[in-house]
């Protein structure tokens, strides 16, 4: 049942909206900004750092006692409420001028994402959700679009840590099950598009906490079956699967160990 936006979600939405404006200002002059590489095909720009710094400052003002984890400046996951920032998810898309990137802020409690706010600045969309309270798009209640469900499309996340043989077999299994597969190179986009109903779900066998902390709540509140697994190596080694019943039924034979841990 839809309810009013809670104060905590309202503040998180406000922070993310302002961060999106900052990110968009960098996007409009991205040819001028400094960029470095963390590893092969994994980039960080001065925009990433500036946006994370802004979000951290705002969270410190409104929630001074809450721990914070960010992609660029790190942090430690605690059992208490912990904010998780991906300042620009899809940095490579951002740098190339694609609109498919986002700013993500999530709140995790006891290893479970409970609040998620994701801005898609170029598309002028701000999605916000809290466990049990539904989804809001630009401040208004939102319901997932489930038209044309027989057009079977999913998003498959990729990672530099993927084992290519395993990834290829998984992709082939999905195609053989007659699913069309998209790869946006941005977990946030995959999860938001799943929550919107643009696609049936998002699957990613290797991801990070900051990539999924915001989007997982959106997918959950959209009514999709959502499984987040924390691996043995902490916040940098997770997996996520979120999808419609039809997609999840097709996925489970291909991903036998897919279950909450």
Q: Can you walk me through this structure?
A:
There is one protein chain. This protein has 8 helices and 14 strands. Strand 5 and strand 6 (112-120) form a beta hairpin. The longest helix is centred in the first third of the chain and has 21 residues, at 7-27. It has helices at residues 7-27, 46-62, 91-96, 164-176, 187-196, 209-212, 215-221, 245-251; strands at residues 35-39, 42-45, 68-70, 82-89, 102-109, 112-120, 125-130, 135-137, 140-142, 153-156, 180-182, 201-207, 225-230, 238-243. It folds into 2 domains: 7-142, Fructose-1,6-Bisphosphatase, Chain A, domain 1; 153-251, D-Maltodextrin-Binding Protein, domain 2 (3-Layer(aba) Sandwich).
């Amino acid at each position: 049942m839809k309810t009013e936006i809670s104060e905590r979600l309202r503040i998180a939405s406000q922070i993310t909206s302002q961060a999106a404006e900052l990110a968009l200002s960098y996007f409009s002059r991205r040819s001028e900004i400094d960029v470095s590489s963390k590893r092969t095909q994994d980039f960080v720009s001065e925009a990433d750092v500036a946006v994370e710094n802004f979000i951290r400052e705002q969270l410190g003002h409104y929630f001074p006692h809450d721990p914070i984890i960010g992609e660029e400046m790190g942090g430690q996951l605690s059992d208490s409420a912990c904010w998780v920032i991906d300042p620009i998810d899809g940095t490579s898309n951002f740098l190339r001028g694609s609109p498919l990137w986002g700013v993500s802020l999530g709140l995790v409690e006891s290893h479970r994402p409970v609040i998620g706010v994701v801005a898609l600045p170029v598309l002028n969309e701000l999605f916000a959700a809290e466990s049990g309270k539904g989804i809001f798009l630009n401040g208004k209640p939102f319901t997932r679009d489930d038209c044309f469900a027989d057009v079977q499309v999913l998003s498959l996340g990729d990672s530099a840590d993927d084992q290519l043989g395993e990834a290829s077999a998984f992709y082939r299994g999905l195609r053989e099950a007659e699913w069309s597969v998209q790869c946006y190179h941005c977990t946030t986009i995959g999860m938001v598009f799943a929550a919107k109903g643009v696609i049936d779900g998002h699957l990613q066998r290797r991801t990070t906490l900051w990539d999924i902390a915001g989007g997982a709540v959106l997918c959950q509140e959209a009514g999709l079956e959502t499984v987040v697994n924390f691996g043995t190596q902490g916040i940098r080694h997770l997996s996520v699967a979120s999808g419609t019943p039809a997609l999840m039924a097709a996925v489970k034979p291909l991903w036998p160990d897919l279950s909450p841990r």
